[in-house]
Specification:
There is one protein chain. By secondary structure, the chain is of the alpha/beta class. 48% of the residues lie in helices and 13% in strands. It contains eight helices and seven strands. It has a seven-stranded parallel beta sheet, with helices on both faces. The longest helix has 28 residues. The protein starts with 7 loop residues before the first strand and ends with a helix.
């Protein structure tokens, strides 16, 4: 999809990190923005910084894991603009680091609500209007932010891995569906590696009802945090990632890989699967 002034973009998780970088890049191209985020003060601060640049932006505080709230937000955006050209399902949390056996039901509920149902709710809220555009042929572009964790499976991240694999599968299935039902509406799924965001501090946004004391033994948790901290030591600037994503949108790329250094792990997993498939077909 060619990005043009006066188009309307909806971005979840728009108060910081990838969401804010995308908002800045799109706003500077003249798009109208609707930013959604659960952190109301940070959201309003982000919106004010964008307005100071002359960018048209509406700030809508909401929990993407709440379907009714997302439906209400979609109704407000559509009432204001009449249409949506670009939907970016970006909101996400890191989840609990540690062995699966120490995870709790509250951990799973929180991570799944945001990382998976946040995408589902965004799609269900905005997709009907986007599909109805252009005489029912569909119009615009959807971007689901997954992760390289949706294409690989490192240890001690089972909650996060599960949700990002789900977003990958959902995105691939929906893209195939849209090709049949709404050929004017395209979808890209983005799989970044380490990016300059606040995802490692996601616990600040965990709902009070789902807060629990970490079950992973403190010594093990400290070692894991040190290990993953080193992996995140040289993250890609969020504005660099935003430029890559915008180029992918304009190329109608179904899959956007942003970090060359993650390619060997992705290819290794694909080859393991391919080897098993070849054996099964023999």
């Amino acid at each position: 999809m060619k990005l043009m002034p006066q188009q309307v973009a909806v971005i979840t998780g728009g108060a910081s990190g990838i969401g804010l970088a995308l908002a800045q890049a799109l706003g500077r191209r003249g798009l109208h923005l609707a930013l959604l985020d659960i952190e109301a003060p940070a959201l309003e601060a982000a919106a004010e910084s964008l307005r100071a640049e002359g960018i048209s932006v509406a700030a809508l505080a909401c929990d993407v894991g709440d379907a009714e709230t997302m439906n209400a937000v979609a109704a407000e955006v559509l009432s204001r603009h009449g249409h949506v050209d670009l939907l970016v399902n970006n909101a996400g949390v890191g989840g609990s680091l540690g062995p699966l056996r120490f995870s709790t039901p509250q951990d799973w509920q929180w991570v799944v609500n945001v990382n998976l149902f946040g995408v589902v709710n965004g799609l269900r809220a905005f997709l009907p209007a986007m599909q109805a555009a252009s005489d029912g042929q569909g119009s615009g572009h959807i971007v689901n932010i997954a992760s390289v964790a949706g294409l690989t499976a490192p240890p001690f991240l089972s909650l996060y891995i599960a949700t990002k694999h789900a977003v990958m599968g959902l995105s691939e299935s929906l893209a195939a569906e849209l090709a049949i039902t709404s050929p004017g509406l395209r979808l890209s799924v983005v799989c970044p590696g380490a990016v300059e965001t606040a995802i490692m501090r996601s616990e600040r946004n965990r709902p009070a009802a789902l807060k629990v004391t970490p079950q992973t033994p403190p010594a093990l948790l400290a070692r894991l945090q040190e290990t993953f901290g080193k992996l995140m030591a040289d993250p890609m600037p969020a504005d660099t990632l935003a430029r890559i994503v915008l180029a992918g949108i304009e190329a109608d790329a179904p899959l956007i890989l942003t970090h060359a250094e993650t390619a060997p792990d992705v290819l290794a997993r694909i080859e393991r699967i391919a080897a098993v498939a070849r054996d099964a077909a023999a």
